[in-house]
């Protein structure tokens, strides 16, 4: 039986949380639940990417192809994400930022940085009903990894600085949410001995 909105427990927190991971990792599902539970805004890099595509009258596939040919699109997206991170990092209000680089872009502004993943075959099954095909998903992952390394010298497979890393194939959607909820509710700023340092990304204007 599916959960109704009233069954999702409220979370009393002012944390700025980032969620990252590859396509099909379950980030959208988790962020929607967290946004409702925390009663806070949620911004997705994917939504911004789709807005850029619509503004340019392009499909997601066309925009992804264009992004591989020029850094202008990626940098425009990253600049917007950084602006959002800067704004909410000073707000002392709950907020969720989701994108492949959200944790790195937000850096020390984020209170909790989460990385979600799942085996490739599981993720492919999850995206089979999306506009993006499985093949396109694979191409996008490889292309993004190469561009991030080229632009920022970022290895997307380096997960050491994340505070929480979950294989979402091991739990149900509710289970993933409950694990993250527990991490948020059990967070104690006074007992926090320190997050891993994250070098700020040099995003060109």
Automatic annotation (TrEMBL):
<keyword id="KW-0808">Transferase</keyword>
<keyword id="KW-0963">Cytoplasm</keyword>
<protein>
    <recommendedName>
        <fullName>Cytidylate kinase</fullName>
        <ecNumber>2.7.4.25</ecNumber>
    </recommendedName>
</protein>
<dbReference type="GO" id="GO:0006220">
    <property type="term" value="P:pyrimidine nucleotide metabolic process"/>
</dbReference>
<dbReference type="GO" id="GO:0005524">
    <property type="term" value="F:ATP binding"/>
</dbReference>
<keyword id="KW-0547">Nucleotide-binding</keyword>
<comment type="similarity">
    <text>Belongs to the cytidylate kinase family. Type 2 subfamily.</text>
</comment>
<keyword id="KW-0067">ATP-binding</keyword>
<keyword id="KW-0418">Kinase</keyword>
<dbReference type="GO" id="GO:0036430">
    <property type="term" value="F:CMP kinase activity"/>
</dbReference>
<dbReference type="GO" id="GO:0005737">
    <property type="term" value="C:cytoplasm"/>
</dbReference>
<feature type="binding site">
    <location>
        <begin position="21"/>
        <end position="29"/>
    </location>
    <ligand>
        <name>ATP</name>
    </ligand>
</feature>
<dbReference type="Pfam" id="PF13238">
    <property type="entry name" value="AAA_18"/>
</dbReference>
<dbReference type="GO" id="GO:0036431">
    <property type="term" value="F:dCMP kinase activity"/>
</dbReference>
<dbReference type="InterPro" id="IPR027417">
    <property type="entry name" value="P-loop_NTPase"/>
</dbReference>
<dbReference type="InterPro" id="IPR011892">
    <property type="entry name" value="Cyt_kin_arch"/>
</dbReference>
